[in-house]
Specification:
Elements: H1 17-21, E1 28-33, H2 40-48, E2 51-57, H3 61-72, H4 74-86, H5 92-106, H6 109-118, H7 145-159, E3 163-166, H8 170-174, E4 182-185, H9 206-218, E5 222-231, E6 234-236, E7 247-255, H10 257-261, E8 267-274, H11 276-285, H12 290-302
Parallel strand pairs: 1-2, 1-4, 2-3, 4-5
Antiparallel strand pairs: 5-6, 5-8, 7-8
Helix pairs in contact: 3-6, 4-6, 4-7, 5-6
């Protein structure tokens, strides 16, 4: 089925979701997505019915409130979005600023959805006070109301009645996982320790993240991590340490738009790490596709 995506979000794994799902084992009880964002992986997984239950978590409280409206009050949210979009007038920039100011005062979910649909490159930005401060893309007016309604109702249909929404730190969420569950971790992009990234309300420290993964390994929890990658010969981010015994799979994310602007024809490759417990499940079930089996066999042979 066509996967609905009501929340436009830069950095979403929407285009890679199908490839990532190839590495899911059979019999997943609960899929946990601690850094949910647009929850592209959860939506794709629900469309394939690969888990019985889902947990969507994000520290961004307005985002999780929006998810609550999408899942539990889809018709109401669709009407609110339509009203906001139709109220745009000749000076769309002024109107956008008014909606943004009201959102920063009230955190209304429908206002947030409108801002996400209209802001530059669907890229969230926050100031030092935690206020949404991204500018609008004045070349577009946001998704058509009928299109947005279709995505909202579709997401609600997939997730309603089997999804828990949380607003916790990621380490509290993964602590809930059992051996029958699967965790998909897509943490914020790596940056300089201690610096503030305007794309996120809170950064994730590398050493802390590694410790959490080590704890999951000790508990034999199955998980996948999207963490770093490369464009051409340039690598992005600090690699996860060998002591975690993770299996690396490289997924082609397509041509780099930035490199294309600079006249270079370079492909971006994103890294997907499989936990030791997940690799064992895949080997036992033999459910993963041929390219995954070949890569895992090569990795095991190289050890």
């Amino acid at each position: 089925m066509k996967v609905p995506h009501p929340i436009p979000y830069q950095g979403s794994k929407r285009s890679l979701a199908s490839a990532i799902l190839d590495y899911f084992p059979e019999g997943v009880n609960t899929l946990l997505e601690p850094f949910a964002g647009s929850a592209a992986l959860t939506l794709a997984a629900a469309a394939r019915s690969v888990a019985r239950q889902y947990i969507i978590n994000d520290l961004n409280e307005p985002l999780m409130d929006l998810w609550g409206e999408i899942i539990n009050s889809p018709e109401k949210l669709a009407r609110q979005y339509e009203c906001l979009r139709k109220a745009q007038h000749g000076d769309r920039r002024s109107y956008y600023d008014e909606v943004r100011d009201e959102f920063n005062r009230s955190s209304k979910p429908d206002h947030f959805l409108y801002l996400l649909a209209r802001c530059v490159k669907a890229s969230v930005r926050y100031n030092a006070d935690g206020e949404f401060n991204q500018s609008p893309d004045n070349r577009r007016m946001g998704a058509l109301p009928e299109t947005m309604r279709e995505h909202i109702l579709g997401a609600s249909c997939l997730l309603r009645g089997k999804t828990d929404l949380l607003k916790l730190d990621y380490n509290e969420v993964v602590a809930r996982a059992t051996s029958d569950d699967l965790i998909y971790l897509d943490p914020p992009y790596q940056g300089v320790c201690g610096s503030r990234d305007p794309r996120y309300l809170k950064s994730v420290l590398f050493d802390e993240f590694v410790e959490v993964l080590e704890t999951l390994n000790h508990r034999d929890i199955s998980y996948l991590v999207s963490y770093d990658g490369r464009t051409g010969n340039r690598t992005h981010g600090r690699p996860l340490p060998d002591r975690l015994r993770l299996h690396l799979v490289e997924l082609k994310a397509g041509r780099s738009s930035q490199a294309t602007l600079l006249g270079r024809n370079e492909i971006t490759v994103e890294s997907l790490y499989l936990s030791p417990a997940l690799a064992v499940k895949l080997s036992l079930c033999r459910r993963y596709p041929r390219r995954a089996a070949e890569q895992l066999a090569l990795l095991e042979g190289a050890r």
